[in-house]
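TA notes, week 10

Several of you asked for a full example with nothing omitted. So below is the full record: structure tokens for the whole chain, then the designed sequence directly under it. When grading your own attempts, check the secondary structure regions first.
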């Protein structure tokens, strides 16, 4: 017989007060909600809620025909409760303080110092709740000469250096196709909040996390950042090429393009054998990876000539038969409908009482837990739909939190 015991979640009993909007903060709190936390999203009634509710089309078609569920909003706001509160009023401030007094985590992305005038800054809320984890996200951080400048993903990508190495070598600097600075900032925020939560649960000591879009973007410059620090030579745009490996690029075929990602000398030899390119295999200019980097242009020209004579499918089949890393370049539709994506639940349909279809499609969480699986318990909410449920939510959380701490 099926068990009546609910499936445990990693963050059962954790209450998150979400004062963030747009993408970085909401990405982080969506992750926490996926892991079982109760996330209460505060939205401003004077603006109609989170800015991204109006960042459409496309929108979900709703029963009342007045959708505030843009696809952009759907991307970062499942597993949350939406509560309308005007922080400029005493009533709104009191409501937020009531929630914060029971919360384990608060996250906000106002300008540095912006919440102090409302009595909702870290110093004020930690006085009510000493073990509170308080994460502040901003464009440039709480300190430094740029602390008061606004922060958007595009500006962070420009300031932080990633655009200088993205795009065609002869073209303009290019941003990444999605708001990756925001998303990665949200990832760092999640890690930071969980680390601080562990410390708070062990010691009773809360703390503030100061995180910026620009800081996190510069942190994930990874090898290109350390290439510069090691050599003092500014990295260049290489399109799809790799700064440290060759051949590692996108190559034209007779009917499209294919990815070739040779990671070592053995794989290069296998590539040459697969296409009967003994001339490349025995050419001293291509014997090692450093030599192939020095002679990248000539090597890539030869590979392009070889691949152009065959279809994408044929090239991939030949390379895979020799164990050479390769792959197609999918459209988003092809990627999300692929057998691999289906097997891994990369797309999830979450029941929705407001959508005309009865559900909304969202991107799945990639984390696969063996004991505490990710939950898709609540579709992205309409603006303010849970405002009347605060007493019940806080009561339920209190019970869950006592259980989490092992109290009766």
């Amino acid at each position: 017989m099926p068990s009546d015991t609910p499936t445990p979640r990693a963050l059962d009993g954790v209450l998150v007060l979400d004062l963030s909007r747009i993408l970085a903060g909401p990405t982080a709190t969506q992750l926490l909600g996926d892991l079982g936390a109760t996330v209460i999203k505060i939205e401003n009634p004077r603006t109609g809620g989170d800015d991204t509710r109006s960042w459409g089309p496309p929108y979900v078609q709703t029963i009342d025909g007045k959708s505030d569920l843009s696809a952009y909003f759907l991307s970062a706001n499942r597993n949350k409760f939406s509560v309308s509160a005007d922080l400029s009023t005493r009533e709104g401030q009191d409501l937020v303080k009531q929630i914060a007094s029971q919360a384990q985590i608060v996250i906000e992305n106002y300008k540095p110092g912006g919440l102090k005038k409302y009595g909702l800054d870290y110093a004020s809320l930690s006085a009510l709740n000493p073990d509170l984890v308080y994460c502040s996200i901003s464009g440039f951080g709480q300190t430094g000469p740029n602390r008061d400048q606004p922060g958007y993903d595009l500006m962070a990508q420009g300031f932080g250096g990633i655009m200088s190495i993205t795009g065609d070598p002869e073209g303009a600097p290019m941003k990444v196709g999605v708001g990756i600075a925001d998303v990665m900032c949200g990832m760092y925020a999640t890690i930071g909040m969980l680390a601080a939560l562990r410390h708070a649960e062990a010691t009773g000591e809360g703390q503030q996390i100061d995180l910026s879009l620009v800081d996190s973007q510069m942190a994930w410059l990874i090898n290109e950042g350390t290439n510069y620090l090691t050599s003092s030579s500014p990295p260049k745009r290489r399109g799809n090429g790799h700064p440290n490996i060759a051949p590692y690029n996108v190559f034209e075929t007779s009917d499209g393009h294919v990815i070739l990602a040779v990671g070592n000398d053995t794989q290069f030899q296998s590539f040459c054998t697969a296409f009967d390119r003994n001339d490349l295999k025995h050419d001293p200019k291509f014997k090692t990876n450093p030599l192939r980097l020095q002679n990248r242009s000539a090597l890539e020209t030869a590979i392009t000539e070889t691949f152009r004579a065959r279809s994408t499918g044929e090239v991939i089949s030949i390379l895979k038969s020799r164990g050479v890393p390769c792959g197609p370049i999918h459209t988003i539709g092809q990627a999300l409908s692929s057998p691999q994506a289906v097997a891994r639940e990369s797309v999830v349909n979450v029941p929705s009482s407001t959508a005309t279809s009865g559900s909304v499609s969202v991107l799945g969480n990639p984390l696969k837990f063996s004991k505490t699986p990710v939950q898709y318990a609540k579709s992205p909410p309409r603006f303010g739909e849970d405002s009347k449920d605060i007493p019940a939510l806080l009561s339920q959380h209190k019970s869950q939190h006592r259980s989490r701490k092992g109290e009766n």
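The first strand starts at residue 15 and ends at 19. Use that as a sanity check on your answer.
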